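Worked Example 4.2. Consider the chain below.
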Amino acid sequence: MRAKISYLITAAVLVFYFVLVGSRGVLLIETGTPLTVTFGVAVLILPVIGLWFLWKNTQFVRKANQLAAELDAEGGLPLDELKRTPSGRVDRDSADEVFALRKAETEDAPGDWRSWFRLAVAYHDARDTPRARKAMQRAIALHDGKPVQAA
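Applying the procedure from the previous section yields the following structure tokens:
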């Protein structure tokens, strides 16, 4: 729940910032000189890109959470079988062992979104965020019945 609240607060602050920057861009355009109009258009592009990125990220998180809820209802969420250091951090060797199991599971069933979801969790536990995100995107695409490129 804390993560959702933090995400919502961050998103609200970003939207406020985008509105503020966008209003400055409009003011520059209203000035009417070629230089200020050019700067105004450039300034307006930044909030558009930011809002697009925020929207895509929010959609990704929403879909990943839906998959997690569906997998939880089926009793298929991966168990936390990781060893931890005294400070509570995941032990790297333990994460690598679990990752090897999840990778083999995914290779055995490459068309199953559930195995890709669990692989994404294993990548995340192994601190490989880019691959975790790609594996989750594949899980979402498979769940939604969208065509998926070969890895």
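The mean pLDDT is 89. The CA atoms of residues 48 and 91 lie 41 Å apart. Compare this with Example 4.1 before moving on.
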